[in-house]
Amino acid sequence: MTSLDKPTTPEPAGPRHAAAPSEDQKAVTQAALFDAFGGIRGTVETMLPGLLFVMIYTINKDVKWSAIAAGAVAILLVIVRLLRKDTVKHAFSGVFGVGVGVAFALFTGSAKGFYLPGMIYGVGLGVAFTVSALVGFPLLGVILGPVFKENLSWRTRNPGRKKAYVKASLAWGLIFLAKYAILFPLYWWGDATQLGWVLIALKLPPMVLAVYFTWVFLAKAPPPIDVIAEWEAKEAAEAAAKGPKA
Fold first, then answer.
1. Could you tell me if 50 and 197 are in contact, meaning their C-beta atoms sit under 8 angstroms apart?
2. Three-state SS for 147?
3. Cα torsion angle, 67, 71, 76, 77, sign
């Protein structure tokens, strides 16, 4: 079985992995990040159920119907993607989060219950990103490694890229923790309507900032080592060495 972070072929001579990033590399990095985090459509699908919940609750103060409406639109977004045969990974993650929030809101009878699971999850992510960066095993590298076809090769074969993942993971962690340092006091002492609108307002800007820092760090890092291409080249070389079957 091929290792995810060990060489599959001998390293070529020369500064292949230390080369300065090109404009093409920056464009590839931008496109990969755009796809990994859902793009504009994924962002809209993530925000829409929560926005609908807070809008309905602001108007009628009815937790039940606000929660049902948010859950229904989340499910509808998944159905639309399925009908269009689009990728559903972002939509499914959104509907799961909304579903847990709806369950909490209906169980507690409090609009704040709709927001609590997502807030706890966000704090957990902030801690995970921060700790992973501090221990030298950045979570963002684990998430994005397959996207760039490098898997975990950055751990042992591409130190410049590992450094970039550490910086980016730390940025994500600190941004998440700062966001929820603002939101949790509102959860404890503010009313549900205030909390909902502030949460909506803080939904996109911190994410955009974190993705921007990620792009800056990775665009300046050495290019990823395509371990998939290496594996395919090794397989082709072994097949050629064996020669044609009799």
1. no
2. coil
3. positive
